[in-house]
Amino acid sequence: MFYTLSEIIVIIFKTVEVLIILRILLSWVTFPGTMGFRGFVRDFTEPVLKPFRVALNVAPGMGIDLSPVIALFILYQLEMLALHLVRL
Q1: Which domain holds residue 40?
Q2: Could you read off the pLDDT of 16-25 as tens digits, one per residue?
Q3: Which residues, in sequence order, are CB contacts of 21 under 8 Å at separation 6+?
Q4: pLDDT, tens digit, for every residue of 22-50?
Q5: CA dist 54 → 45, 50, 63 (Å)
Q6: Quick one: which of 62, 60, 63, 26 has its CA closest to 41?
Q7: Which of 36, 58, 82, 83 could tie 53 with a disulfide, CB 3.0–4.6 Å?
Q8: Which of 79, 53, 48 is nearest to 66 (CA)?
Q9: How far apart are the C-alpha atoms of 62 and 59, rounded to whole Å?
């Protein structure tokens, strides 16, 4: 099966968006012995979220971290821009 460039862009962005949402959900609950999956999600999403944390000056243990929400918004905008550029 072959995918178009537009489909590949959507798959990549949606995968990152789902992983960020999973990270948000996993931060609300604790499951003993699930560090493997939780660690994978953290390691995969941290490079995306870290620049937003730095820009927002969020310190660890600071309460509400809005960087995932802002990252999701920016990722959506970048996805729309990439799809627009591909379709030109």
Answers
A1: 5-87
A2: 999 999 999 9
A3: 68, 72
A4: 999 988 887 776 678 888 999 999 999 99
A5: 15, 6, 15
A6: 26
A7: 58
A8: 53
A9: 5
CA distance 18 to 72: 10
Cβ(67)–Cβ(52) below 8 Å: yes
Find the helix packing angle between 35-56 and 67-87, rounded to 10°.
Answer: 90
By the 10 Å C-beta count (0-12 exposed, 13-18 middle, 19+ buried), 20 is classed as: buried
Cα→Cα distances 77→13, 39, 71, Å: 10, 27, 10
pTM: 0.85
The structural domain count of the chain equals: 1
Look up residue 76 and give its two tokens: 């959506």
